[in-house]
Write a structure and sequence with these properties.
Blueprint: H1 2-77, H2 80-90, H3 95-126, H4 128-131, H5 134-140, H6 142-149, H7 152-158, H8 162-182, H9 191-214, H10 224-245, H11 249-258, H12 261-279, H13 282-298, H14 300-327, H15 329-337, H16 345-351
Helix pairs in contact: 1-3, 1-6, 1-8, 1-10, 1-11, 1-12, 1-13, 2-3, 2-7, 2-10, 2-13, 3-6, 3-10, 5-9, 6-9, 8-9, 11-12, 12-16, 13-14, 15-16
Length: 352
């Protein structure tokens, strides 16, 4: 009798847990979906304005700087965007463990920022192509600092995405409004990376404050074993991320090394349209990753069934988006970028 009661109790608790997880999953999905819509709208608000004010040459220069600094974003992320949320999710009820994980990851990221800054400085002053616009690269590097300060991985692991949404909206809003205020002519192109960096840094500072105040996390000096553990956990993800960057960030960067700024502008503007559409799907992966980390531990069959449904839905939706995007490329390019960027049409059609 006791065994029957215990089994029924376990079954009931399992059902409650899965029901609560689904509710949290939906809330997180809605939060991130709202954020991605904002991420889609805000850049599209500034893109038509920037390409017309800065013209292809200066817009291409900014795109090249972003691609260059993008390597340091990958380096400072290291792989923690996937390895850390899993550990945070598993240890979410252990404040001491959360503090250890948070402190270890942030310390590693801090040293990676310093290493990145030294590496970028050496590159800038060793090569004429970079030395000519040295200030632009340093202003753009502020995005790396802000990204390191913003612990997206922590909020993902806690499964409390509303903070990510709120803080990112603040950063996007600051940047978007400021662009129209300060960038009035082609010579103002320096304001673009400066304002973008400030938006990221402000959001980063606020996020650290929220982590410490709302979740009871304290900054501690982690032991050597904890540092090595985090480095080991993120290593394989980091290697795969570097591999992916060969056909993402590297496209614009390599193009900028061998062609002029106008060609970089055509490619970067076209790619931005495609990335904006593509980014609408990222909330799904961000929300599902910590969810599946838990569900697989509770029920392998249920997790496998859910995964298959999501996979089929993803295929059909992305296929439809790709077809529609290819057909409507001329309209979107001319509407968003203007006549000076007609060369971006084939770029959109290929990348879509």
């Amino acid at each position: 009798m006791d065994r029957v009661i215990n089994f029924n109790l376990f079954k009931k608790m399992k059902e409650i847990y899965l029901s609560k997880s689904k509710k949290t999953l939906l809330e997180n999905f809605l939060s991130l979906s709202f954020l991605q819509v904002a991420n889609y709208i805000f850049p599209l608000l500034t893109l038509p304005y920037l390409v017309r004010v800065l013209k292809p040459e200066k817009y291409g220069l900014i795109a090249f700087a972003n691609a260059f600094v993008g390597y340091f974003m990958i380096l400072t992320d290291y792989g923690f965007h996937l390895s850390a949320p899993r550990e945070i999710s598993i240890n979410r009820d252990n404040k001491q463990k959360l503090s250890e994980i948070f402190s270890s990851v942030m310390i590693i990221k801090f040293f990676l920022v310093l290493f990145s800054l030294v590496l970028m400085t050496a590159t800038i002053f060793l090569f004429d192509k970079f030395r000519r616009d040295w200030l632009l690269y340093y202003l753009t590097f502020g995005v790396v600092l802000g990204n390191v300060m913003f612990p997206t991985w922590f909020f993902q692991g806690i499964e409390n995405m509303k903070f990510i949404t709120l803080l990112n909206l603040i950063a996007k809003l600051i940047f978007t409004v400021s662009i129209f205020v300060f960038v009035r002519k082609q010579a103002d192109y320096y304001f673009v990376p400066l304002l973008n960096s400030l938006g990221f840094i402000v959001a980063g500072i606020l996020s650290i404050f929220i982590v410490i105040k709302n979740f009871g996390v304290k900054f501690i000096i982690p032991v050597r074993e904890q540092i090595l553990h985090q480095l080991k956990e993120g290593w394989h993800v980091f290697i795969s991320t570097v591999a992916v960057s060969l056909y993402t960030t590297s496209n614009t960067f390599i193009l900028g090394l061998f062609t002029d700024r106008k060609n970089v502008a055509y490619f970067a503007a076209g790619e931005k349209i495609v990335r904006s559409i593509q980014s609408l799907w990222s909330p799904v992966s961000q929300v599902l990753y910590p969810y599946f980390s838990k569900v697989f531990a509770v029920s392998l069959d249920k997790a496998t069934q859910s995964f298959r449904k999501i996979l089929n839905f993803t295929f059909l939706l992305t296929l439809l988006i790709s077809i529609l995007g290819c057909l409507s490329a001329p309209f979107f390019v001319k509407f968003l970028l203007g006549q000076d960027f007609e060369n971006a049409i084939p770029v959109v059609r290929i990348l879509i």
